[in-house]
Amino acid sequence: MFFGRYSCVHIPSNRERFQIKLTIRALMPFELGIRVYDPEHPNSYYFRRKAAFAKANSKREFVIALPVSPEVLEMEVFDKNHADDDAFEIVNVKIEKMPALAVWATDDQHRFLEFAIQFAQKAGYVPPGFYESKDNEFLFQYLDKITDPFGAELITPARTHRKMPRVQISQRLFKSYTIPIRVAILAHEGCHWFLNTRSQTTADLCGMKQYLDYGFPTIEAVYAVTKVFGKNPEIVGASQIERTKDVINFIENYRANEY
């Protein structure tokens, strides 16, 4: 057990698939912060979450899914409000293997997703440039930012060419996202190309199915679909709100049915 305002746990992850079950007991009302990251590279968060404990002696378990990992991870658990007194107790930290991978997709979709995951893991620290898959099948163009023909920055973190497997990605936006959110965005872009569709909702649900099948955390999936519009409320219209509802409903049904 650990009592305090801050704790850092070192985890030899060895690039394996596993999940962390973390049990926290509040010693007073406080706001908990959890961060799981690669300590060897900047901007490489595998999980970020905050949770409010309204009452003392309340206890909660957090399940942190890590379907991909680096050689080493660190997990920080802390009081976001930096209270002077000890705010929480770590009751238990348990590491469990995750179920075997079961993504139902075509071979080329599998290859794209693996390439997307590899890029997502390094996107926080590599420079802008062109990144190709090993077989030169897929191409990511990592830009400082994505702009329109007049040079104005677009809020989209990524966009794809529907007639070729090429994705443009905004470094400025991607660096601030967790690795799961980056994967969710890239899976969405890949579905635009594989399905040859302009429909954002179709690409959303296709990409989200692959993301969830891979075992990435659902809480990060919700962040992924609300991140851009949440930061830019002036552009949100009825279609974007409906699109977000469709994805969240899909995630809830996925969790309920475990398909």
Structure description:
- There is one protein chain.
- With 259 residues, this protein is an alpha+beta fold.
- It folds into 2 domains: 2-97, Galactose-binding domain-like (Jelly Rolls); 107-257, no CATH class.
- Helix content is 33%, strand content 30%.
- The chain contains 6 helices and 12 strands.
- It has helices at 107-122, 171-174, 179-195, 200-214, 218-231, 238-257, and strands at residues 2-4, 6-11, 18-26, 30-37, 45-53, 59-66, 73-79, 88-97, 129-132, 139-143, 158-161, 166-170.
- A 4-stranded antiparallel β-sheet has the order 1-8-3-6, with no helix packed on it. A 4-stranded antiparallel β-sheet has the order 2-7-4-5, with no helix packed on it.
- Helix 1 runs antiparallel to helix 3, helix 3 (179-195) packs across helix 5 and helix 4 runs parallel beside helix 6 (238-257).
- The longest helix is centred in the C-terminal third of the chain and has 20 residues, at 238-257.
- It is globular.
- The chain starts with a strand and ends with a helix.
- The model has no long low-confidence stretch (mean pLDDT 88).
- This is IrrE N-terminal-like domain-containing protein.
- It comes from Winogradskyella bathintestinalis.
In short:
By secondary structure, the protein is α+β, with helices and mostly antiparallel strands.
